[in-house]
Amino acid sequence: MEMGTKLISGSQFHATVDPTPSPETPIVFDLSALTAAQRNGYGWAVGGVKGSGANDFISVSEVASYGTAGSTVAFAFTAQPTNMTVTAGQRAKFTASPESTAPMTLQWLKTGNPVAGATVSDYPTPPTLLSDNASSFTLQVDLGALGLFTSQPAILTVLPRTNPPVLAATYDTTNQVIEVWFNGSTDPGSSQTGANYTMNDPAASVTSATQEGQGCGVVLTLSGPLTVAGPTVMVANVMDLDGNTMATQTVPLLPLISDPTNVVANSYQQGRAARLDALDRRRCQC
Fold first, then answer.
1. Residue 133 belongs to a domain with what CATH number?
2. Residue 106 pLDDT
3. How many CB atoms lie within 10 A of CB 155?
4. Which residues of 65-101 are buried (b: 16+ CB within 10 A; e: fewer)?
5. pLDDT confidence of 12, banded at 50, 70, 90?
C-alpha cells in the first residue's frame, strides 16, 4: 500500500514477479501522539483515490489517527504466571502481578474452577499428585462493575517420582531423635509407622514417628542413645501421596553439631554478648 511514493507498510507488488500477492498485508500506525485517555477509543481516518491497478491498488492521500477520552480504569498484568514442573509430592508456586487504579478482588482458578482460599497474588499448591499433571492455573481479577480480567494460563507438569526418596537423615544426640528428610511429601499413615524405620544399632529402637507439617520430614524418637560408630537407618514401606511404595533405602545418620560459641562484647557491643547455636540441616523441596 502506497502513500504517494512512500511505502507505509506491506509490499510493493509486481505483476510479473508477484502476480498473486497475499491479501494479508499488515498496516501499522504510530499512536504515540495520543494521550493515555485518548487511547481508550481510537481509530484511523483514511482518505484516498483509486489505484492504477498496476503496481498499486489504492493510493492513500491522508492518514490520521484520532482518539476519544474514556472512563476505563487502567489495569494490567505486569507479570504473568509461568509454567511449573515438579516431582509428585512436591509443591508448585504460581505468581502474578496485577495492577489497577481500582480496588481488586483476586481469585486463583485451577482448570477453570476457583481454588478455596487462594485470593492473593501468589498461590502455593498443596503437595502435588500425578492426577494434577496438565492442570492449568490462572488468576482472575474482579474490578466490580468494570469487569473481570484473567491472566494467561500456567500449566503444571507433575513428574513421577524416579529419584531416591530419602534425601538425608540427621541425628540429634541431645534429644535422641532422628529426622528423616524425603524429596517430597509422603503418605502420613505409612511414614508415621515406626516399624518402617530400622536402626543398625541393637541398643536403640524407634518408639514413635511423627510427620512434620510440610509432609517432607519425619521425626523418629529413639528408646535410647545410639552406640555404634557408623549409625544408619533403613527406610522401607513408606508410600508417596499417590499410594506408590517407595524403594527401600539405607542411609547414614549425619550428626547435628550445635556447639556454643562465646562472643565477647566490646565497648560498642556492651551488653550484647550472646551464645550462638548453629544447626546444619538438609531440607527437602516442598
1. 2.60.40.10
2. 98
3. 14
4. bebeeeeeeebebeebbeebebbbbbbbebebebeee
5. very low
**Domain co-membership, 181 together with 230:** yes
Place of cell 533403613: 234
| Count of beta carbons in the 10 Å neighbourhood of residue 185 | 25
* Domain tally, the chain: 3
Q: Which domain holds residue 195?
A: 166-261
Mean pLDDT across the chain:
79
CATH of the domain at 172: 2.60.40.1220
Coil/strand/helix, residue 190:
helix
Three-state SS for 148?
A: strand
Question: Which H/E stretch holds residue 124?
Answer: strand 122-124
**Secondary structure class of 71 (helix, strand, coil):** coil
Shared domain check, 196 and 135: no
Same domain, 85 and 155: yes
pLDDT given for residue 30 in this prediction: 57
Q: How many CA atoms, within 13 angstroms, populate the side-chain half-sphere of residue 78?
A: 6
Residues 35 and 89 in one domain: no
d(CA 22, CA 54): 15
H/E run at residue 126: none
Mean pLDDT of 244-261: 83
Report pLDDT digits (tens) over 34-71: 666 555 555 555 555 555 655 555 555 555 555 555 55
